Amino acid sequence: MQAGAKVVGRGPTRPDETAFLGLSEADLTPAVQGAIRTLLTEVDDLRQEVSRLKARLNQAEILADQDPLTPALNRRALMRELERIRTFSHRYGSPAALVYIDLDDFKSVNDRFGHAAGDEALRAVADRLRSQMSGPDLVARIGGDEFAVVFGQATLAGAEARARNLARSLESTPIRFGEWSAPIHVSFGVSEITPDLAPEEVVARADAAMYARRRERRS
């Protein structure tokens, strides 16, 4: 083919389609041009499919970490975050604490108003807790009527003070569902998140502190 000859076929290729081969349009037959167009189209389609798969994977990861009832993390995600915070604390000496929160006598809400009302109450509690968080703080539902709050930048004393404020906030307004209204009462316990404590032990210590506080209040 003579230099400068014009290729007749399925239309001109885009300048960038063959540049990476070091070839000009005049060097390619119509069949080769068509094959390159097909290949580039398939590459574009593959890129779009990869983007869609990444989006679906991200959504699946979010759902895997979220409690199915409330807008809070589940226990699995909480344990992972506690491990991450423990590593961060070991590296930078940053204080952090976990608050274990239990709704007192919550079974009576289900017994009196039904499980739909109980589910609504749990969602409302999670919403109230999340509204009090900031920065590195997070909220998780451990199971049943038990929640955990992680204060990412708090000493034990600071976490105790914030936990008391959370309890007052939760108890200040009854939970409403349709025509019923039920007061919320909570017990809580606090544990530091330190490099020497595994996530399960942090939760167990806060749980034990919660039960000790409840027994002291009721005695």
Helix content: 40-55%
Low-confidence stretches: 1-13
Q: Mean of residue pLDDT?
A: 84
Shape: elongated
Please give the count of helices.
6
Structural category: alpha+beta
Strand content: 5-15%
CATH homologous superfamily classification of the largest domain: Reverse transcriptase/Diguanylate cyclase domain
Q: Roughly how many Å apart are the termini?
A: 100 Å
Give the SSE map.
Blueprint: H1 30-65, H2 75-92, E1 97-103, H3 107-113, H4 115-131, E2 138-143, E3 146-151, H5 156-172, E4 175-177, E5 180-182, E6 186-192, H6 199-218
Helix pairs in contact: 3-4
Describe it.
By secondary structure, the chain is an alpha+beta fold. The protein has two domains: 19-65; 75-218, 2-Layer Sandwich (Alpha-Beta Plaits), CATH 3.30.70. Helix content is 53%, strand content 15%. It has six helices and six strands. The longest helix is centred in the first third of the chain and has 36 residues, at 30-65. The termini are far apart. The model is unreliable at 1-13 (pLDDT under 50).
Structure described in brief:
The chain is α+β, with helices and mostly antiparallel strands. It has helices at residues 30-65, 75-92, 107-113, 115-131, 156-172, 199-218; strands at residues 97-103, 138-143, 146-151, 175-177, 180-182, 186-192.
